[in-house]
Amino acid sequence: MDNKTSFWQAPGNGKCFDSFLGDNSKMNNRTIGILSYIKEKSITDGYVREDEYKEGIVEYLSSNFNADKNDSLKTHFYKPALFYGFIHRNKNHDLSLSIEGNLFLNYYKKENYKECLKLVINQLDNTTYPNSATGKVQNLKLFPFRILFKLLLENRTIPVKFISENLVHISEYNDIFEYEKNKNISSITSFEVNSTKFQKFNTWVVNSLVDLNILKLSRANLSIRDEMLEHIEVLYSKVNFNDMFFSTTVCEVNNSIAEKRVKRDQTLVHDAKSRDNYSCSINHTHITFISKGINYVEGHHVIPMYQQKNYNFKLDNIDNIVSLCPNCHREIHSADNKMSILNKLYQLNISFMQSNSVGLNDLYKMYQCK
Fold it and tell me: Residue 142: phi, psi to the nearest 5?
C-alpha cells in the first residue's frame, strides 16, 4: 500500500503554539521547552542525538515547564517546531536549532514577542513540502505558507472552510493558474471533505497562527491581523504564485524571490570580481572562458540574500560576495554535498561572518546541508 499523500498535512500530534506568546499555555510551554532543551544539549557537539532527546525531554519539560508526563511519541513533540523550521534534523536524526529557532528563542527570553512573531512568519516563508516533519507528503514541491499568505493579502479574508476544501488540495501551479488570471478565489477547485485528515492543517496549523495573533478569525473567515500586515506585504507583494512551486532546488527558487524582495547594488558584484582578479575564490586555477577580455566569473552572496529578512545588517555587502566559476556556482546551489565548498567560503569570509555572529553550522543550515 502506498502511504504517500498529495495534500497538505499537519505535523506531530497538536499545535506548535496554542496561545499568544508570553502565555504559559500547554503547547507554548512544550515548544519553548523543546527549543530550550535542544539548545542546552547542543552546546558541546552542536546537536543532540534523537535517542538522547527521547530519553530526557519528558523529565526536562516536567521539571522546567510544568508539563504533564504522558506516553505520546517523543518525536511527535518536536515535529511542529521541525515543520516550522525552528529545529534542524540531519540525516542521522541529530537535532539542533535552526538559525531562526535560535534567534526566536533569544528574542523570546528577552520578551521581545513582536520580533518573535516576525521570525515565525519568516520561517513559515521557508517551509516547504516535502518536509521532514510530514514524511508521507512526498508528491508535492511547493511553499504552503507563501500560497496562504498571498491569498490572504489579495482577498483580505478567506472562509475557514476554504482551507480544508480547497487550499490543502493545491499541488501544482496549474491548480492556481486560473485564480492568478481572474483573482476569483472560487476558481480554485473545491473538494468534498469526507475525512478529518483534510481538516488537520486548519485545526493544528492555521488555528495556531490565529492563537499567535498572526491571523484573525471572525465569523468563520480568516484575515491577517493589522499589526502583521506590513511585514507580510513586504514578503509577498512582489512575489507571484509561480514563485511558490519548484522543480529545481529550493535554493534557486529562494534566490529568485530574494531578487524581487531586496534591491541589489550591482556595482558591489563588479567590485568583488575586480577585488578577486576575476578568478574563482574556490580555486584560482579554474579557468572558464574569456568574456569582454577577462576571465568569466559570477558573483555569489555567501549568506544568501533570501536570509535578509532575518538580519538587521546588510547582506548585499562586498564582504559577503565572492567570485565563483560557473561550475562552483552551480555546485553551491545544486550539489548533494555542499559542505566542502561552504567550509572554504566561510574561511574566506570569516571576519564578516564572525562579526555578525554567523557560524559555519548556520551556513550549512542555510544551504540545507544534511
Answer: -155, 165
